[in-house]
UniProtKB/TrEMBL annotation:
SUPFAM superfamilies: Nucleotide-diphospho-sugar transferases. Keywords: Cell membrane, Glycosyltransferase, Lipopolysaccharide biosynthesis, Membrane, Transferase, Transmembrane, Transmembrane helix. Residues 10-171 form the Glycosyltransferase 2-like domain. It comes from Coralloluteibacterium stylophorae. GO terms for cellular component: plasma membrane. This is Glycosyltransferase family 2 protein. GO terms for biological process: lipopolysaccharide biosynthetic process. GO terms for molecular function: undecaprenyl-phosphate 4-deoxy-4-formamido-L-arabinose transferase activity.
């Protein structure tokens, strides 16, 4: 891939105060993808207050695939993901959480699933079959997934997993709102696309601390769940043909 050629894949990583996790994760992404596919890494710093941005800036000289975008003010994970996707040059996007709990070695697995899938399948969602979180966090996630699945019928066991692979154009066509990243399967299905859950690895957090607590997740999740259910109920789709087209 030449310097000016668009990569086939953009890896988007949103971060907030993850200074100790940046360098190891970037190294793992490079190891997983270099030589396999043309790619870029798009980090979006959500106004970190630690040394995250300084480390990313230094890494740009070492990793030619790395790009760094910076939010002027803290805007949340969904906004950071959307910022990265909009700036991405690849037709397909892989996302990872910036805390290092997703394994970049699973990205080639998602790519193989995509290559074997029909064109109507636009989202490959990671499924953490063995969670490496605290018991309370696992319980809260199980409870939230059960409620969401019952209400939205999105047939996705783990929407909160940070590692996903999706088509950039399909993502940008979705309605945007804060916390939308937790509802990507339902939103993709609302748009008429198919979704597949793929078992992936999950690792304990090696450094730093979680930016959410269970109460915050529950309250915001229930409020957004009602909104997404309303969007689905109000959705209308139809096939379109153009007169005179071949």
């Amino acid at each position: 891939m030449t310097q000016d050629a668009a990569p086939a894949l953009s890896v988007v990583v949103p971060v907030f105060n993850e200074a100790d996790n940046v360098r190891p994760l970037v190294g793992e992404i490079v190891t997983a993808l270099r030589g396999r596919i043309g790619f870029e890494i798009v980090y979006v710093d959500d106004a970190s207050r630690d040394g995250t941005l300084a480390i990313l800036d230094a890494l740009r000289a070492e990793v030619p695939e790395l790009r760094v975008l910076v939010h002027a003010s803290q805007s949340g994970q969904s906004t950071a993901i959307r910022t990265g996707v909009r700036a991405a040059r690849g037709a397909w996007i892989a996302t990872l959480d910036g805390d290092g709990q997703n394994d970049p070695a699973d990205i080639p697995l998602l790519l193989r699933e995509r290559d074997a899938a029909p064109a109507t399948l636009k989202l490959f969602a990671g499924w953490r079959t063995e969670r490496r979180d605290s018991g309370s966090k696992r319980w809260a996630s199980k409870w939230a997934n059960a409620i969401r699945s019952r209400l939205l019928r999105d047939d996705t066991p783990d929407t909160g997993c940070g590692i996903k692979l999706f088509e950039r154009e399909a993502f940008l066509d979705l309605p945007y709102f804060d916390h939308m990243h937790r509802f990507l399967p339902a939103l993709m299905q609302r748009a008429g696309w198919q979704v597949k859950s793929v078992p992936v690895r999950h690792r304990p957090r090696a450094a730093g601390c979680s930016k959410y607590n269970n109460l915050q997740r529950a309250w915001v999740g229930l409020r957004d769940l009602r909104g997404v259910a309303w969007l689905i109920a109000r959705s209308r789709r139809t096939a379109v043909r153009e007169l005179g087209a071949p």
